[in-house]
Amino acid sequence: MDPITLIITSLATFVQIYLYLLIARVLLSWFPNINWMNPPFSILSQLTDPYLNIFRSIIPPLGGIDLSPILGFLLLQVLQGALVRIPYMI
Fold first, then answer.
1. Please, what is the Cα angle at 32 between 29 and 37, to 5 degrees?
2. Cβ-contact 19, 73 below 8 angstroms
3. C-alpha separations of 21 from 2, 29, 60, 88 in Å
4. What is the pTM (predicted TM-score) of this model?
5. 44 contacts: CB under 8 Å, gap ≥ 6
6. What tens digit of pLDDT does each residue of 48-77 get?
7. How far apart are CA 89 and CA 57, in angstroms?
8. Domain range for residue 73?
9. Could you list the residue ranges that cross the membrane (predicted)?
């Protein structure tokens, strides 16, 4: 495997792991009694909130429902799809 393919595959894997973290963050946000200051939750929040805040500035919460993760998921899915196809184009 050449170095460029290795880098692209690693980036695609990172995006996939980050998608899993976002899914966990969204699912946990449905439980209002979670203390986001506890260590496992604070780490998850610190990893995902900066990315989601970009989309929260574009789409404010509507009626208490945060729709920003939808845009975040969409962008990451497009990025991952592009990364997966690049090695076949080289």
1. 75
2. yes
3. 29, 12, 21, 27
4. 0.89
5. 21, 24, 25, 28
6. 999 999 999 998 888 888 899 999 999 999
7. 35
8. 3-89
9. 7-31
